[in-house]
Amino acid sequence: MLASKEENSYQGLAHPIGSAMHELLHACGMYHEHSHPDRDKYLFVQNNSYDYRRYEPNDVRCFGNYDFKSIMHYQDNAKC
Fold first, then answer.
1. Do 2 and 31 form a contact (C-beta atoms < 8 A)?
2. pTM of this prediction?
3. pLDDT digits (tens, 9 = 90+) for 13-27
4. Going from the N-terminus, what domains does the chain have, and what CATH number goes with each?
5. What is the C-alpha to C-alpha distance for residues 5 and 14, in angstroms, rounded to an integer?
6. Is 23 a catalytic residue?
7. What is the pLDDT of residue 71?
């Protein structure tokens, strides 16, 4: 998903190269995968715990369906 702007609330991947790639993709304009417009079909999100906002389809450009293995996805134990 391409972003118009992104707030940096990310707490890193387990591997430094993965973290650098993730941040580079933010610089290229990509959003977090868990903000994908159709994420609610695939995830249960506790909205009161973290900043896991979901974007509307007209707000972002998506290049496919939700991708669980995307480097732009937070780890399941990450805190935002």
1. yes
2. 0.59
3. 557 788 889 899 989
4. 1-80 (3.40.390.10)
5. 24
6. yes
7. 86
